[in-house]
Design a protein that fits this description.
Elements lengths: L1 E4 L5 E2 L15 E4 L35 H7 L8 E6 L5 H13 L5 E5 L4 H10 L7 E5 L3 H11 L3 E5 L16 H18 L3 E5 L12 H5 L2 E6 L6 E9 L7 E7 L2 E4 L18 E8 L2 E13 L7 E4 L3 H14 L8 E7 L11 H13 L7 E3 L2 E2 L5 E2 L4 H10 L4 E5 L13 E5 L2 H9 L2 H4 L3
Parallel strand pairs: 4-8, 4-9, 5-6, 5-7, 7-8, 15-16, 17-20, 20-21
Antiparallel strand pairs: 1-2, 1-3, 9-10, 10-11, 11-12, 13-14, 14-16, 18-19
Helix pairs in contact: 7-8, 8-10
Length: 455
């Protein structure tokens, strides 16, 4: 007799109120001594070889013909690799993988797409909508592991997509579909099959309410690549990140545009984060944020109005509320006119972009100062820098890459920290100003050259 945690899979011989592994309460469930009936056959081991004699060409990545998906995986999907893709409900995981499967199948590669959440007819309708119909794309609505393994044996696919791992169950294992025991055994069986056949496999994983992948944590250790698909429900932008990748880096991000007729790779997503109007009202400032290795030009907007009630409001969208509160405090201490105690402050980004790194501090400050003073910044200007609590502007990583991205998109002026350009070459025909303190930056960009259009 044993007890297993339904959240993380931790096992113990006695019942405990709280799981020692994941610290969850009341999740230890009683299991029989022989809960798993899966038999493992003893096979004669193959001869070991010197590592220099191993054929590395068998593990070379192959393109999925979806550029942003290849970018995150490290150039493509490796034969025998198992990719786990997670994300919130409705973010577009199934749409993305159906598009990937169809693109590969259009080149004559046999793809088996197994869905356990929808009927085959529902998937067919989505495929028609996103133009993902291909003769080499095989579709099956199945939730039994044995049937899926039988399809793999009979059809011999070159790519397997399972949507989702929590819907599959084995009749030889106790537990409900999606439970710790079932997920562990089903994943182990599919991974063994993928490695034995050099069959690249993509598994969709559900997430819990706190954002972690449902099932045992062992699942993330077993697979080769763990990706998360992110995006705001009311925004077109979707981002794919690799949390774990045995075949490539984990510091890159893939950008996708979710449209009515499908999902498309975005090689240049900065246009989604900029307003389309020709006017440049007060409270608007541009910055360059870094998403993995990719620099993105983002527009920050602020609005400051007189509070109608006795208590002022602070509302943000796309930026960290605590970061905005810090920048308001810095401005109130270092800029004479910044008395916002009785004002409502609203700060947001354009297009659903998210600013979380300190490099956007200067742009947030300048956006707030511009809205407070009622003066517009120069339109072709970016502000890049971290602002300390004392008001000092500090340098940020990858400044040269950020400035080159801004120059590529037509930006002609930039404001950075003092000394930041010591080892960085300014892009051609771009004027870069260095400021040491936030008070000097406000004076430079809002009261002097910026007003006359000289910066």
């Amino acid at each position: 007799m044993s007890f297993t945690c339904s959240e993380c899979g931790y096992a113990t011989v006695k019942w405990l109120g709280r799981c020692p592994e994941c610290q969850a309460w009341g999740t230890l469930e009683e299991k029989g001594a022989n809960s798993s009936k899966v038999k493992t056959k003893v096979k004669k081991s193959s001869a070991a070889k010197p590592i220099s004699e191993i054929d590395s060409t068998l593990a070379q990545a192959r393109s999925t013909f979806v550029p942003e998906f290849d970018r995150v995986l490290g150039g493509g999907i490796v034969p025998g690799a198992v990719v786990l893709l997670s994300g919130e409900p409705g973010v577009g995981k199934s749409t993305l993988l159906l598009d990937v499967a169809a693109k590969i199948a259009m080149f004559g590669v046999k793809v088996l797409y197994v869905t356990g959440e929808e009927s085959a007819g529902q998937v067919r309708l989505r495929a028609e909508r996103i133009n993902a119909l291909a003769d080499s794309l095989l579709l099956a609505a199945e939730t039994d592991l044995g049937s899926v393994l039988g399809m793999i044996e009979s059809e011999q696919p070159e790519l397997l997509v399972v949507d989702s791992i929590q819907t599959l169950a084995s009749s030889e294992v106790e537990g409900i579909p999606g439970g710790v025991t079932q997920v562990r055994e089903v994943a182990s069986a599919l991974i063994r099959e993928a490695k034995a056949r050099s069959l690249p496999t993509v598994l969709v994983g559900h997430i819990t309410k706190d954002g972690t992948i449902a099932g045992p944590r062992l699942l993330e250790h077993l697979v080769d690549v763990v990706c998360t698909f992110e995006g705001e429900r009311h925004s077109r932008l979707r981002m794919l990140r690799a949390v774990k990748n045995r075949f490539g880096p984990t510091d890159d991000v893939g950008c996708f545009d979710m449209e009515e007729n499908g999902i498309k790779s975005l090689e240049d997503p900065s246009g989604l984060f900029l307003s389309r109007s020709g006017a440049n009202p007060p409270g608007t400032c541009l910055t360059v944020t870094q998403e993995g290795k990719r620099p993105l030009l983002v527009e920050v907007q602020s609005l400051i109005t007189e509070s109608a009630g006795g208590q002022s409001r602070r509302s943000v969208s796309g930026v960290d509320s605590s970061r905005v509160a810090m920048m308001l405090a810095v401005l109130s201490q270092n800029v004479a006119q910044a008395n916002l105690a009785k004002s409502d402050v609203f700060t947001a980004t354009v297009g659903g972009a998210k600013l979380s790194e300190p490099a956007s501090d200067l742009a947030i400050c300048m956006s707030l100062a511009s809205a407070m003073l009622g003066k517009s910044l120069a339109r072709q200007l970016v502000a890049i820098g971290e602002v300390s609590l004392s008001g000092e502007i500090r340098n940020v990583p990858n400044l040269g890459q950020r400035l080159n991205e801004a120059k590529r998109l037509g930006i002609t002026h930039a404001v950075v920290a003092k000394g930041a350009m010591t080892n960085v070459a300014a892009p051609e025909k771009m004027k870069v100003e260095e400021c040491e303190h936030i008070a000097g930056a406000v004076e430079l960009m809002l009261t002097k050259q910026a007003v006359r259009g000289e910066i």
